[in-house]
Each structure stands twice: as C-alpha cells, then as structure tokens.
User: Fold these one by one.
Assistant:
Number 1:
Amino acid sequence: MPLEIDLSGRRALVTGAGKGIGRAICLELARAGADVFGVSRTESDLQSLGEEVAALGIRYAYAIAELRGPLEAERVVEAAVTALSAIEILVNNAGVAWNAPAEDVTEEQWDTTLDTNLKAAFFCAQAAGRRMLARGSGRIVNVTSQAGIVALHDHAAYCASKAALGMLTKVLAAEWGPRGVTVNAVAPTVILTPLGERVWGDPAKAQPMLAKIPLGRFGQPVEVASVVAFLASDLASLINGETVVVDGGYTAI
C-alpha cells in the first residue's frame, strides 16, 4: 500500500468549515481528491472557501446552518447527499467556547456549548451514520481537544463537552465498526487560527501554556487537517475508536 493519502472519489461533509481548522480540513481533503460539502454560519466564508476548493478541480457545495440539534443535522446531511450523491466522510468540527470561571458559567453558556460541541456532533453522526451503515462503509472524524483530556481553568463547559465527545467517539466506534463505519477523533492543543492568534497572541498569556508543551510551540491548522485526512483514508482502515492527540506533548507530562 503506497503511503499516500488518496481520497479520490470520496465525498466529505465538514461542519465548522468556514474558518480555522475546519477550513484547513476542507482544503486538505480536497487536495487528497475528495469532494467537499462545507457547513458554517457565515455564507461569505463558505463562498470564499468554495473558490479555493474549485481551484483544486474539486466539486464543492455548502449549507448555512446553526447546528444545535437533530433537525438541522438531518437538513445539512440531506443537503450534502443531494449535492454530492452520497457522503462517505463526516468531520464534526463545529464548536464554540465560552471561557469563564466555573462559578460564573450561566445556563445559556453551558447549553450553547454542550448543544454545539456535543449534541450537534452526535446528531450529525447519527444522520450521516445511518446512510453509511446502509452502504456498509464510512469514516467519521470528531474534532475534540486536549481540553477533553486534561482540565483547563475557565473551561468547565468546554472541557465537559469535549470529554463527552471523546467517549461518544468510542461508543459509536464500538457499535458501528462491525458494520463498516469507523469513528475516530483528533484532539488538538492551541492552534494558531486567526482566532487563536488573537486569543494567544499576548506573550504574557501564551508563555504559561507554551511552557507545558514539550515542543515549545502552538500548532498550525494544517497539522490537524493532515491527521483528519489520514483518519478518513484507507491508510487508517484498522484504526477505530481512537483519539489522536495533536498537542506537541502537552498531555504526555
């Protein structure tokens, strides 16, 4: 088997596709040959992404959605199937983070975080998974976080949602693996997306976090996207129920 990620002829649905890690994932999947269906809340981001994907000679379509539950999940999966004829790859990347001390977290912040990061991911997996199971094959990759493995101050809801997504990955892998659908996750450290650069650009804030990363640096979106593409490919055909931590060693110490 050649050590080359080849997704030619595959069709992928990526949530949170407009910016940052999601955008990098869409482009990495497209470079590997997969057609792409992007989902985001911002149409201008999806349109500009489409221009980049089209430049690679890849089919592209999109849907605008605020993913919070089963109705929107079913709608976007059905739209993706209509546009691309089928979905073989689902990447649950959409997420939000409300940072606050635990004693100050509001019910709205908690519900928004859990609905977006966990509930929507499950129902997208369910909607896409039903179709994959009917065909007997498919790849689902959930984007979690190192914050689902180790505790971070002021991240109570976020940590809870990402830890739960990691366990959901295992449950789906156990149930669906025997029927041809693998389910895995990627858990990044701080990634220097435009938002990440704004949040962590202050050296006073960045240095304590960097001191905990043995490699001494934050990640780039493509470093997450390349792992997602690998897990979506035939090279990862025996990997199921795993979380690949992309954190420079943060969780190793």
Number 2:
Amino acid sequence: MKILIVDDEKNIVDILTYNLVKEGYEVEAAYDGREGLEAARTCAPDLILLDVMLPYMDGFEVCSEIRKTDRLTPIIMLTAREEERDKVYGLELGADDYITKPFSVRELLARVKTNVRRKSVLVEPAEAGDEPFRAGRLTIDALRQTVAKDGVELDLTQREFELIRFMSRQCGKVFSREELMREVWQYEYYGDVRAVDVAIRRLREKIEDDPAAPAILMTKRGAGYYLEG
C-alpha cells in the first residue's frame, strides 16, 4: 500500500515516513500543493495525507482538484487550524477525515489503517447476488456502486454512496451519529462526529427535492438519522 504525504514541513514528513514505513507502507512525499496534486495524479496512492497550509496551492484547492477525477482514494487532511469552519470545509470538498496538529502518531496510523482497509474492501468485486434494490424513490446498485432517484443516476462520492447504501438496508431505522461513524466510517474511537452531519447535508443536497424540507433522508430530533422506505 502506498501513502502520499503532502506537507511543506520536512520534519513532519520525516516523522510520518519513518512510522509509516515501519508499518509496512510505501511512502511518497511532496512539499507543496502543485507537486502534491501532480503526485496524486501520477503515483497512484492508496491514501493521501494532505496538509492544509501549503505553498502555491493550499490543501483545500488540492483536495478539490483531486475529487474532480478521483472519488475513491481516501484523503486525510492535516491542519493546525482550530476553526470548525475550516474542518467542515475540507469535508465538504471531499476529504474523508481530518486530524489537527499536533497529533498522536499512533492515532494517525490507526486512521490510515482504517481508511486503507476500507478502500481495499471497496475495490474488491461485489458479490454476483448483490442485485439492485429500491428504497422508496431510490435505487441502489451495489455492483455498479451507483444510486438513482426516479431512474436518474446521482453524482455521489464514495462515502455518500456507502452511507446511503448502509441506511437503505434498514429503512425507517434511526441511526445515531455514533453508529454511523462506527459502521460507515469504521471508527471505534473517534469522538468528533461532524463528518456525519456534513455527509448528511451533502447527501440531502443531491437526493432531496428541497434539502431544507427533507422527505427522504430524515432527522429524528435528539436521536439521529433515518431513511424513509
């Protein structure tokens, strides 16, 4: 498995490289945004660790450009910023996760392992018996990894597809944000569940006639989210 690190702080790149190689990963490094974007397009990484504050192109721009052509490769944003809007913005651009500096190497390695494992499962061929099924106005096709609404295919990210597919298996059941984080994001230890709220909001913008008055992806106040059958 190959990890691409994009960070302009050489000491951080060196520390991460040492620990990732020790865990058995191959590592590529880039030290500015333009170099990082080129590496993401040419070296076929299995996961990208992407700093926000970069020369030439910041991490948000790099993430946005990557997601125009690659929806599958996990991106973990590395940031020294504490502002919630910056973290949410990265998730809205298509990042899978973020971790704030200074961070525990052990925690970062755990998140890398989870996301790499998730990608390896996604690229395995789906089972032949996993046929398309309907959930209300939606049709979920696990073989093609697509979702259609009223017969029109939707442009979902990989995470959004995983989320809708998971919830559609039990339409009407209310899932807490912690449950969704555990089952879809596969994080047992992760306490910040804003990633779930961002993904739900983005999904509503794509599947609802009126995202401000949802009729498909519903909220149960104080409990969580559920999908209408």
Number 3:
Amino acid sequence: MATNQNYYDILGVKRDASDDDIKRAFRKLAAKYHPDAGGDEQKFKEVSEAYTTLSDPKKRREYDQMLMFGGIPGADFGGSGGRGRYSYTTNVGGDWSDIFNNMRGGDGGFGGFDFSSIFGGAAGARAANRPTKGSDLTMSVDVSAEEAFRGATRKATYRVPSTGEEQTLTIKIPAGAVDGGKLRYRGRGEYGTNGGDRGDLVITTHVAEHPVFKRDGADVRMELPLSIYEATLGATVDVPTPDGTEVRLKVPAGTQDGKTFRFRDLGAPNVKRKGSRGALFVTVRVKVPTMLSKKERDALAALRDADTRDYREEVMRYGARR
C-alpha cells in the first residue's frame, strides 16, 4: 500500500466511522478482492488486515492513538520500515493459507465475520452448484440357513426418498453368506444433485439359525450324539454336511465326550476367497441313557463290579496331599 495510507483509507471510511460502516465497507471490498472470486489476493490481505484491526475496539483504540502521534501503523504491512513509517503487526492466529481455509470452511477468521454472507453469489455459489453424490440407502433381507449355504436370489422393492418412486432389483445372495454381511449395489441409492452420481444401495443379510450347524465364518460346527456303547467300543457314523451330502466318521474305541474331528473343505463356501470352503468340525457328545431295562441294569452292574480301574486316581492323589 502507499506509505501515506492508513487502515481507514484502505477501507474508504472516515476515522469516526461506526462499526457498521466499517463492516459494510469490508464486505464490499472483500467481495471484490477475494481470491475465490478471482480478485487480487494482495489487496484482499490489505483489506483483511485493516478490518481485523478496526473491527476490534481495543486494537482500534491503540491504532488511533498511534495515528495521533503522526505514525502510519500498518504502512508497508511490516515492510522494511524507514523514515516516516511505522510497522504495526496484527496477530490473526496463523498464516494466510490457514485463514483462507478457515474462511472457506465458514469459521470466520476475522472477529467472527461470516464470509458465507459475502460469497453466496461467487465462491459460495460455485460450491453450491458442485456435483454431489447421493447418499446411500439401506435395507435388510432375511435368509434361511440353507439359502446362506448354497446361495439364493430375492426380488426386492424399495422407495427412493427424494422422489418417492419405487424401484425393484434382484438381490443375489452369494453362497456362504453370513449373518450381518453387506451387499452393495452401486448407483442404486439416492439421486445426486447438480449432475452428481447416485449413491449405493447397501443390503444387510440376516441369516437364520440352523438346528444342527453353527456358523463360524466359513467354518461350520456341529455336535454329534454318541451312545456310551459307541464311544466305548468304537463305531462308524454317517455325518450330514452343509451341502446336503454325508461323510463317514470312524469313531475310535474309547472316544471321550468333547472330542472334535475336523473335515477340510466340507464347511460353507468362503465369500472372501472365491472357490474355497471352510472346514466342518464335529464334536462328540456322549449320551448316557436315563431309562434302563432290568437286563441292561444287571449287565452294566456286572461290568462295573468287574472293572478294577481307578478312574479318580489323580483326584484322590490331590486330596491326599492336602
């Protein structure tokens, strides 16, 4: 700025200008010189610095006192100084790039001044007219356990909030779908504005519980009941699998309750790794009969009396130490 200009000159107001006069002058000049509106950034800095000082009562009072002594605070905006010049620095809380960013974000930057009121027809208008993608829409679909294992399709109808129109699509539920899984259909959500893309439709799958199989991702777990005779003597049992086939399990003699057998690639399809499947885990549950015939009771009693094994040896040893 010229060396004989002060902040009042820059804003084009008198020294006794009211706060409203200063604010109106700044609004007019800021709209003219703001960089986002294609104006002169250096002039905008000068106008902004002048407003920062004159809009603050304390800073304005100090500034006026300096003017009374013949100085020109703000001359050269902190330039090299020299005869007849006085450097007056105003701290606005950061460098200019920070201030511009704050102003664009609506943070004010100059004593709470709202720049959005100035640039509603310039930079604000450009921002308002930018293409904006529509929001995502969500819905859920109930799936049986069998459908989740093998995959299925569903016809779904939903309503677009902004237009009220109903739209229909075919949902493809992948084999191996899990409870709470997400299916995303791009471009089937809410409409965008100003030519922006449509949002997506996000569908959550709710998979029903199976009476036998329990899912653990792609792995499947089940419990296999065995009689005490099968567990003791050993047995061969046909075990169902999630895909509807059976696998033969050879139970060794003396198998204990809780023993788990693993079958690779007989679980559910892995939706994250196409072409692969999880494992099937079969846990043995030994069932003790609650009702016995006299013949069975007598036979079991004879076996018990003839059994000389000490099944509680470890327990009793621990008790003896105490």
Number 4:
Amino acid sequence: MTATDFLVTTPLPDPGMRLLEAAGSVTVAPTRMTREELADACASGEYRVVVAQLQDEFDAALLDRAKISGISNFAVGYNNIDIAAATANSIVVGNTPGVLTDATADIALLLILAVARRCVEADTLVRSGKFHGWEPELLLGHDVSGRTLGLAGFGRIARATARRALAFGMTVNFSPRPPGDREVSETELGEFAGRVRQLPWSELVATSDYLSVHVPLTEQTHHLVDESVLRSMNPSAIVINTARGPVVDETALVAALRDGTIAGAGLDVYENEPRLAPGLAELPNTVLLPHIGSATVPVRAEMARRCAENAIAMARGDLPPYPVDPAAHTPGAATAPN
C-alpha cells in the first residue's frame, strides 16, 4: 500500500485544501483526533505529512514512534510540537510566520479599548433593555490616550501594536525579552528610536497602565505574568494577552481580578484552551475572545496557502519554505514505508 501524502486533522480554509488535493492524496480526519488516534495515525506508515493545528499535540513519545516526514502546522506558533524530538527523528516542522502581524496587533488594541471602556458590559446593558438614557456615572471606564502601554517583547506584533498605540497618544515602553534583559540599540529600534523607551521587566510591570504580552511560549516565559508580577502592578492596570495562554498564570489572574489587585484583562488566548480557569468567565472586568487574533479572511487564506506549500514540499522531500528547524531536513527523505 502506498502512503497517503497528507493527513489533515482539520480542513484548511481556501486555498489550502485545493492546493493539497492538486498535489497528492489527502485524508481528512472526520472528527477532532484524540491524542491516541493521532499517535496511531503517525505511527501507521500510512501518511507522509500531517497538516496539523495548535490543538494537535506532538510530544516526544509520539514523535519517536512516528513514521512521517513532516508536520505542517497551521499557525505561527509551534509549542504543540516537541521540536527537539522532531529534529532527532528527522521530522521536518513548518509553520506560517509573518502573516498575522497586523491582524493580531489590531486585536491587541481592540482589547485595550474594549476593556478600558467596558464595551462588553455596555453592549450587554443595551441589549438587556436596561439602558434608560445617559447618566453622569454610567459605566465609567479608563482613559487610553495619555496612558502608558508596556510591551512584554518587542518583535513584529509588539512593534505593530506600538505603532497603533502611539497613534492613540499613548506612551510606549517595552522589555524586549522578559524576564531577562538585553540592550536594544537605536539602530535596531529603527522607526521607533526616540519614540519608545526600553525598561527592565520589573520596572515595566510596575509603571504600565496596560501590559500587553507579545512573547513566544518557552520555559522562560511560561507563567511570565504570575502572582508576583500581578501584585507588582498598579491597581488600575489592565493585562492584555494575544500571545500564548500559558504565558499568563490564569488562576492567579482570576484572583487578581477578583480582589482588585488589577483593574481588568483582555484575553484572546487561554492557558488550557479552550477551557477557562474557574471563575474567569464570570468576571465583568474582562473581555474574552475565542483566539481570533488571525481571524480575517485574507490572513487565514494566506496562512492556509503557506501551510499547504510547506506540506507539499515535505511530501516531495524538499525543505519547506517556512521551516522551524531546517536541521531536521534530510534531502530526498520523503518516502514513508509502503
């Protein structure tokens, strides 16, 4: 039996599926695969490349058994895949970088504005029929213009968020690789030289009216925003997370929001997605979005194209255009067992 070229755990938006189907044979999982089902499929020798989603977990035990050539992740992030184990087993991993910068920055700013101005509460009030006209103290919120935005991380998405915040008249500070520090030169800052200020992580936390998280999920950034960080913030501060859920200790965040340690939070990602920490959904001082940072038609289409291009290259035995670790690539090694 010849191996199927592509196992797709969840169908891709257009044009992803069309590209895959034009390039080879495609099997689409009829329902979301359990970890055991995914592990068995990868070990079966029936598939060359898995086209995966962030909810598909590829740990070392799965990858050590796997008889696949590649994993094409439909995401920029790849913390669902043990990259070291994939490389050790010559399994190439691809992602979709450089696509969702502006879309995610838009969501970060949306969350800042929505939490500050209590937009969800206001919308609910109107829809419930409880709006009885203008009142002097109805749903008073927080200012955005003239306030300080602290950026945890200063990569592409953080810089796009800074650009938007500056246009709103905010003061923008950043810490480039928290919890550690490194000096960012004026040359590296480019257009932001003289417009933003670098601060040590502890000072950034203590001085930010809005703390927006823009770091990858690593051992160092897991629970970067924890109970101690939250207690170091101003009582009027608001936390924004559009990066990775586990960067914020969600249980500690719920406690801080309940007891007034901080004023609010806007989240697009969650620590144990799609589950929420107990009590989070009941808090009125939050805006909770369903991981829609990249959810525009053009962005998802481009992500699907890049994901499919990665998978097609892997099935041919070529290095994909967007590899996570090129060292895993063995030229011509695309054939799964027949």
